[in-house]
């Protein structure tokens, strides 16, 4: 009987490993979603201070639970599908956009060899996912069969094409220095000094381009609320709108991580800071 008991025992031992991997990914996604939900509240608070408005103030202590109320409102609301739209793709495209945004975090690195998947060409993978998310936005306006959404999708297509080309030309300067597309190599090359001190002008352009890429104020040109009635997502509401709304913040949070790794040395402080601290705060 031992000839079939041994393989069965080995299979039983391998099951918990797969469960641990699945649970690890689920916990990472839930934590990232919770962090991004809190970032929406922080952004609204900051914008209200800049524009001299009250902002979220009533739900919870000084509006601290406003993002939970917004999530419940969006997920409880019913879904309305326009009569003239392509119903299959109208429902599918937001789910694809949400899946692409969660896929961003397979490319993330939290420390030395601390990542969900080991990817060698991190910058290329991030660029491809960003382009794929832009395609989802463009197709949203097309399959809605609405003139406002279609105009916004065309505008977004032209904008994203220009941004991706310009962003690639900027990032390639950093790639020439490190001779690699891997995030770990970027961190290793910044052990002495961060690249932001070397590429000050390029870093400013990369930061502005990332704001354009992620549709953040004051560069939220893809939505253009005043001209195109919330842009490409005008026909969406409830759960499907929440997927796009969450996707934009996933995009923003991921590119913030990319900036911290590519320009600010990731999880390593530059060596001159260590020397500065060790030698009683005198640079030698």
Automatic annotation (TrEMBL):
Write down the EC number.
Answer: 7.1.1.2
Which topology term describes how it sits in the membrane? Multi-pass membrane protein
Where is it mostly found?
membrane
Q: Name one GO cellular component term.
A: mitochondrial inner membrane
Q: Which reaction does it catalyse?
A: a ubiquinone + NADH + 5 H(+)(in) = a ubiquinol + NAD(+) + 4 H(+)(out)
Location(s) in or outside the cell: Membrane; Mitochondrion inner membrane
Matches recorded under InterPro entries:
NADH_UbQ_OxRdtase_su1/FPO, NADH_UbQ_OxRdtase_su1_CS
Q: Hey, what's the signal peptide range on this chain?
A: none
Q: Name one GO biological process term.
A: aerobic respiration
Metal-binding among keywords: no
Could you list the residue ranges that cross the membrane? 15-42, 88-105, 125-144, 165-186, 192-212, 224-246, 252-277
Name the keywords, alphabetized.
Membrane, Mitochondrion, NAD, Transmembrane, Transmembrane helix, Ubiquinone
Q: Which GO terms describe its molecular function?
A: NADH dehydrogenase (ubiquinone) activity; NADH dehydrogenase activity
The record, for Pfam families, names:
NADHdh
Family, as annotated: Belongs to the complex I subunit 1 family.
Q: What is this protein called?
A: NADH-ubiquinone oxidoreductase chain 1
Q: Which organism is it from?
A: Tetrahymena rostrata
Q: Upper lineage ranks? A: Eukaryota, Sar, Alveolata, Ciliophora, Intramacronucleata
């Amino acid at each position: 009987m031992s000839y079939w008991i041994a393989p069965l025992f080995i299979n039983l031992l391998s099951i918990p490993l797969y469960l641990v991997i699945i649970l690890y990914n689920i916990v990472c996604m839930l934590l990232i979603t919770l962090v991004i939900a809190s970032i929406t509240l922080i952004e609204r608070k900051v914008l209200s201070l800049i524009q001299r408005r009250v902002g979220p103030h009533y739900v919870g202590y000084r509006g601290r639970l406003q993002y939970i109320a917004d999530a419940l409102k969006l997920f409880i609301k019913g879904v309305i599908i326009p009569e003239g739209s392509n119903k299959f793709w109208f429902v599918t495209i937001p789910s694809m956009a949400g899946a692409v945004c969660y896929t961003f975090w397979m490319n993330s690195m939290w420390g030395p060899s601390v990542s969900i998947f080991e990817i060698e060409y991190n910058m290329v993978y991030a660029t491809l996912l960003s382009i794929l998310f832009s395609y989802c936005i463009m197709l949203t306006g097309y399959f809605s069969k609405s003139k406002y959404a279609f105009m916004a999708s065309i505008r977004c297509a032209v904008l994203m094409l220009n941004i991706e080309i310009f962003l690639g030309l900027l990032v390639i300067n950093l790639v020439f220095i490190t001779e690699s597309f891997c995030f770990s190599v970027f961190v290793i090359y910044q052990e002495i000094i961060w690249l932001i001190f070397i590429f000050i002008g390029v870093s400013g352009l990369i930061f502005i381009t990332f704001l354009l890429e992620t549709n953040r104020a004051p560069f939220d040109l893809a939505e253009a609320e005043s001209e195109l009635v919330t842009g490409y997502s005008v026909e969406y509401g409830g759960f499907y709108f929440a997927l796009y709304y969450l996707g934009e913040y996933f995009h923003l949070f991921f590119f913030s991580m990319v900036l911290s790794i590519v320009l600010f040395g990731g999880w390593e402080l530059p060596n001159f800071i260590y020397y500065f601290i060790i030698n009683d705060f005198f640079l030698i």
